[in-house]
Amino acid sequence: MANAYPNPAEINPHNRSFLYGDGVFDTVKIRLGKVCFAELHYFRLMAALRIARMSIPQWLDQETYEAMLCEKANEIQAPNARVRITFFRNVGGKYFPSTSHVSYTIETEPLEQSDFAASNEPYEVDIYRDFTITAQLLSTIKSTSKLIHVTAAIYAQENDWQNCLLLNEHKNVVELVNANLFVRFGTKISTAPLSEGCQNGVIRKTILTDAVLKEKYAFEERPISVFELQQADELFFTNAIQGVGSVTKYRKKEYEKTAAEEIRMRLNALIAE
Fold this sequence. Notes:
A hairpin with a 2-residue loop joins strand 8 (179-185) and strand 9. 26% of the residues lie in helices and 30% in strands. The chain is an alpha+beta fold. It folds into two domains: 16-110, D-amino Acid Aminotransferase, Chain A, domain 1 (2-Layer Sandwich), CATH 3.30.470; 124-271, D-amino Acid Aminotransferase, Chain A, domain 2. It has helices at 16-20, 38-51, 62-75, 147-158, 202-209, 211-214, 258-271, and strands at 23-31, 34-35, 81-89, 102-110, 124-133, 163-168, 172-176, 179-185, 188-191, 218-221, 224-225, 234-239, 243-247, 249-250, 253-254.
């Protein structure tokens, strides 16, 4: 049976995502042949296309979106997989595009585990100060312009850290290279609001709105100062593939993992529904 959507595009040297970073993407976790948090991922992608002033294809409804991702995972016979779909404006023009129509590519890799798993490995972070994230709406989408994140990742590798904390122009802590950051003081858990320039993470949104987690923790979105980090009881981070992970050390401070472990259990319950 023919697909209800066009085939992925072939990448060529004139691709606008390659030349200008003129693209947006979404990365999802496939668990036992099902897209985790599919609705949140789909609507986030739609919002990113609109913010980037790209035309949303008429064939791209949520059902088709999920089918595309699952079929890609099936191609490598992986019941659990990481799948990334990237949309980019079609070839034409230079800084002034000749069209707003888009094409896409999909890439995938198998995941060993179906659930979000804990790690017992050390996870040390520090602050990246060479460049800052701009506190604006464009920073919240997954675009193909990620040079700040890449240079921060290289800086972490050079210093044998596992990740870096990124700041905005107000010198507030925004996120990690590939994850949203949460800071816990007792039963109060804080994370940067989207207005600070952090990624509009699917797991971030799930945690902030989950009624079960709210029974134990008070969540708030607010600017986070660098000076708070060493006073916190716990630092943890979230993304769509890992779910939740714990920062074990920042500077001389070592952290608990209590909330991260409880939140991981809740996330695993949600994706198993």
